[in-house]
Amino acid sequence: MLEQVLAWSAVNSGSRNLDGLARMASLLGDAFSALPGSAVLVDPAPVDAVDAAGKTIAIAHGRNLHLKVRPEAPVQLLFTGHMDTVFGVDHAFQETRWLDEGVINGPGTADMKGGIAVMLAALKAIETSGATNLGYEVIINSDEEVGSLGSAPLIAEAARGKKAALTYEPSALPDGTLAGARPGSGNFAITIHGRSAHAGRNPEDGRNALTAAAHLALLFEAMRQPGLSVNPARIDGGSPSNVVPDIAILRVNMRPATPELQRIAQAMIDEAIALVSSEREVQIHIHGGFARPPKPMTPEAEALFGLVKQAGSDLGQAIGWQSTGGVCDGNNIAACGVPVVDTMGVRGGKIHSMEEFLIVESLKERAALSALTILRLAGGAT
Questions:
Q1: What is the domain partition of the chain in residue ranges?
Q2: I need a labelling partner for 89 at 20 to 30 A (CA). Which of 164, 209, 272, 345 fits?
Q3: Domain formed by 2-50+59-182+295-378, architecture
C-alpha cells in the first residue's frame, strides 16, 4: 500500500489536469485489475459553468474508473473514491517527503490516494475469503474535489439497490474519528445584467450591475442562521471607472444542515433575486444549485456506523464519529437512500494544504477495518 501511495502521489492529478488524470486512471486500472470483473473508464457527463464574462462554457473532466464484481450476488455494496486532488499542475506542492519515521507529507497522500490503496487492499483480502455471496461496484471519480458534477449520474446509478456503501475519504481527525452527519452544499454563479451609461454625463440612465451584485451579496449574507452557512465568495465583472457597469457575476456557496434548511435557502435565494431585480431594474440569471444534498444521521446510517465501530473494537481500534462541515460523495450516495460511511480512508490531516500528511500505520489499520466490515455486511450484518 505504501509503495502505491508513493507512486500515485508522484502523479499530479489536479481536478483540471486532464493529462495527469488520464495517467492516474491508467495506473488505477492496472492496480484494480487484480480484482475479478472488468474495470472500464467511463466518460463524464457534460458540465458547464459561467466564466468571468458571464458566458456559459463547457468544462472538461477526466474519465471515471468503474468496476463491477458479481452483479448477480445477493448482497451488493458500493465502494467509492476519487483520483483527483486540489493541487493543480502548476502548484508548488508536487512531491512527497518523510516528516518522521511514520508520517509522510505529500499531495493526495491522505486525500485520497492513501484511501484508494486501503480500499484495494481490503477488496483483495475479501476475494481470498471466498465470499461469493457478495457483489460490489467500485467507482473512482476524477472530479470529486470540484463537486462531482461529471460523475454524479454514474454514482447515482451505481448506488441503486446497494445494501450499504463505503467511501474512502480520510478520517475526520488524525485519531481516526469518522465523519457523521454532513451539511449539503450549493454553488451558484449569479449573472446580473444592467445597463451601461456614461458615469459623468448620464449615470442615471445606467443600471449598475456591480452594485446590484453587492446588494444581492449582502442579502445572501443576512440569510445565515444556525444550520445554514452562506459565503458570498467573489464578484466578477465591472467596467472602466467612467462607465456604469452593465454586467457582474456573483459567486456564492451555501451549506444547509438539513433538507428543510435547503428548501428554506432556495426560497430565500428566489426572494432576494426577485427583490434586487425589481428595485435595481436589472436582469438576473442563476446558474448552479445544491449538488451535494445534506447527509443526516438516519437510523440506517447509525446502524452502519455501529457495525464499523464494533469491527474496530474487535481489531483493537477505537472508532468514534462526529458531525463535520465538509461535503463529499457520501452526500450524494446518502441522497439515494443508501447508508454510507464516507471516511474509511487513512488517518492523516491538514488536507487541501501543503502540510497534508498520512500516518503510515493507518494503511494496515484501515484496510483491516474495511475488510472485517465488508465480511460482516456480506454475512448479513446491518
A1: 2-50+59-182+295-378, 185-292
A2: 345
A3: 3-Layer(aba) Sandwich (3.40)
